[in-house]
Fold:
Amino acid sequence: MNRDKLPRFTGPNLTGELQFNYLDRLIRRDLRVARTEDITPRYRRVVFVGDDLADGFPYVPFSPDHVRVFFPHPKTGELVAPREQPDGSWPNEGGTGDPIHRDYTVRAWDPETRELSLDFVLHGHGVAGRWAQRAQAGDLLVVNGPSSNWRLPENYPHYLALGDETALPALARIISEAPAGSHVTAFIEIADAGEQQKLTGPADVDLHWIHRDSAPVGDGHLSPLETALRAWQSPADSSSLFAFAAGETNSLKPIRRYLRNEMGLTVDQVVVDGYWKRGVGGFDHHDSDIDDD
Ligand SMILES: Cc1cc2nc3c(=O)[nH]c(=O)nc-3n(C[C@H](O)[C@H](O)[C@H](O)COP(=O)(O)OP(=O)(O)OC[C@H]3O[C@@H](n4cnc5c(N)ncnc54)[C@H](O)[C@@H]3O)c2cc1C
Structure:
């Protein structure tokens, strides 16, 4: 890929729509676990350090980017990941098998300590979920990217942020980084009350936790998140609202349709991203068909 031809944007983003700042280089970072922190029974923060963070990390506020994380093979322990060569190619190294990678949101970057934090759902299966369950200080991972900083617009009076626990790191960043003076309404679907986290920010925040174990699911709705959204009294002036939604792909389809067709938000006012797909291992969000209709 010729990165010179990719779009560049430097903020603040007052354009009213998402903007991409493709970074000059895609960087591979070989990192090791410094420590883990159990945020809730099913959510674990993994804090990474390493010499490859010595030059910093492209963390941009209100830009909940993701990185591509390469995991060791659960049986062989081989950590296969590509490394850039002087000719620009990216052959795999570390073993003969296929690389195993998943996307994770950059939850935090501390420029003082040079620590990068990713938050993992401990969902009980999958290479990444199981790796996080067992992660210990000293464990190694490869982190590629981010490829771009995708900057949310900063000139809306009202933000709607919704999703399931995979989106929690992105939603938490929207809540903590939305401009002061704006209003954030968040709907976050989690397993039960024990999974709630403390989330605050300079904006005026209206946070709704949707407990999957007890929240109602309306007739014909695919998730309690959809039911909660449909019951919400949205701002009378729909042009004042920017919406971000992420989580399980199929559950998000009716949510996207509701935002676009029933609430009347324009394509620029809505970002919906399928972060995983029930029953599909290693789902690639670029294959998501959420925007197809
Ligand atoms: C841009 C982006 C950012 C993301 N950020 C985060 C993040 O910050 N934190 C985070 O935890 N996840 C995040 N995800 C989601 C994460 O990449 C997926 O959940 C991924 O599938 C986990 O990999 P795995 O190896 O554990 O499971 P896989 O091997 O991919 O899947 C195995 C099985 O588990 C199911 N499964 C996958 N994820 C879940 C889940 N959360 N709950 C229940 N079942 C599941 C699959 O449907 C499949 O049946 C992000 C995804 C994208 C695209």
Remarks:
- The chain has a mean pLDDT of 96.
